[in-house]
# Entry
Amino acid sequence: MNSTPPQPARPAPATAFLRRLAHDRGGNTLALIAAGLVPLLAMVGGGIDMGRSYLSQTRLQQACDAGVLAARKKMGSSVVVSGEVPADVQITGDRFFNLNFRDGAFGTRNRSFQMTLEEDYSISGVADVDVPTTIMNVFGFTEVPVHVECAAKLNFSNTDIMFVLDTTGSMAWTNPDDSEPRINVLRDVVKSFHAQLEGSKSPGTRLRYGFLPYSTNVNVGYLLKSDWVVDKWTYNGRENKDTGKSVTYDTYDTTYTYVSGSADPMPSGIVTTCPPYTAVYTTLSYSVDADGTERGRTMINGDSPWCDISADSSGFEVYGTRFVNYTYDWTRKKTGSVTRPIYKWHYKPMQFDVSFLKGATGEDTLKGGSLDVLMEGYPSPSPEIITAWFRGCIEERDTYEIKDWDDVDLGKALDLDIDLVPNPSDPKTQWRPMLHEISYEPEIWWNGTGTFKSPVMSENGYLQAQWAGLSACPAAARKLDEMSTADVASYVDSLYPDGSTYHDIGMIWGGRLLSPTGIFAAENADVDGKPTSRHMIFLTDGETSPLDISYGTYGIEPLDQRRWSQKSGETLTQVVEGRFAVACKEVKKRNITVWVIGFGTSLNPAMTECAGPGHFFEAQDSAELNDVFNKIAAQMGDLRVSK
# Structure
């Protein structure tokens, strides 16, 4: 604020009476007394009028401050990106000024108020008013001009922002009023939000951004120290097992002789659709000799293609053979028999050494890798190798099935203790690497039907979660850090939609990455003695929708039964939402502000209660989502009077 002490506007010369009195040499006592009253009256009157002026100045300054503050708040931070000042900014500022200093207040007149948008996007203002005098008017001072100045600026103190973003399969959908999929809209809005905040921060201010995409799981493995991860873990696998029985097979020798026709390579090139298989085999003759030898003649017509995805992924490269009246003779003669043992798959929990994923020391982060296991193909005579990859997603540490949501024991529910640092000598406190390919689900068929049972001996090939698309692992999370425009763009453009909606694991790990007192306490501490404002922006496009046949953070739920089983008194959805609520409370205990946004969906009670009044929003299209982020940016900022 800035104001000038009120000064009389038009001082007048002394009156004729005072001039005569000054030249009167008579000893008139009454005249002397009267002359003494005049300056006394001037002092008293001046005090009264100046008091009214100072009161008017104080109220005018308050009105000026209120006007520019309201205008700057209305303008928000999007002006930094768009360069456009909303049309109603002036109206808003004038309204607040007028409410705080009404026209004619204290008998004033000639009230004026002007605002200006400065280069640093602050709004400055000047206000003027004339205060008429009363007693001083006798002495020629008719009014006192009052002038004040004010300015409002949106600043950001040191701030940490964690984006917890739903990247489930439905983010590939397009909202009715949009032309782009939700994931594309999200990318654009986050980029704009980052630009707003960066354009509004003051020199020396630290703004950090972190990202946690979530779906069926979270990809945080490569952020973890090796000491925080187990050396061994148990997965739902299978191995071939000798049943003690055998089967005898006949063996044959088969020969082929060309007769006529053609069998040429199919035309090569890249096509958008793999051509169909059209080859037709026609038996022209068939006979059996006295010794059991089979003979025949066969003709083939049509195409026998196979396709590979092209190098640039623009289509398919076609290979195969085109048959035109291709005719051949064949003979098949029995040569003997062979007896082989019968194997079956033994579906069961299997423990593996996963310490090869760790870095050179316990302080090093995981280096990653893969594990070859004999679980592919058929169990007899020998399975084939399948490679199980660590992609960065993890299984949670020890927990229990919670019966009373108002009395959660964090000493047992270690997954919900967002600050607990793992003990290298206690596997219960450590996280476990997901190996997506070791995720078999006996006796569940590939269409999702069946009943969970383990262990099981069977020759059947039951559902494997990874191949069925039920073991999603989103893009890797990113810890809090100062990020450039290019950094943010590169990251959000890498997000991809996949998997189901498990809100609890998003809230749990969003809190862990943001907490100033947890596993990243050293990195998340306040700097330079300045407090840090911490915010979580939790965005989802759907209701809670877990699948019991998914392989996720808590394993394969009906088999591993770490927090839920098919005999539980609640549905898996209720359990996920209950844990979400507990995790949200734990997050807010760390003085973290939680903002929840429903994009293209309605928020459930668990979401709105988590955020609290004024901190949850619903957006049905890109324009509304932009507005929501603008509102959040404005509320994050420190709107203050700067002059």
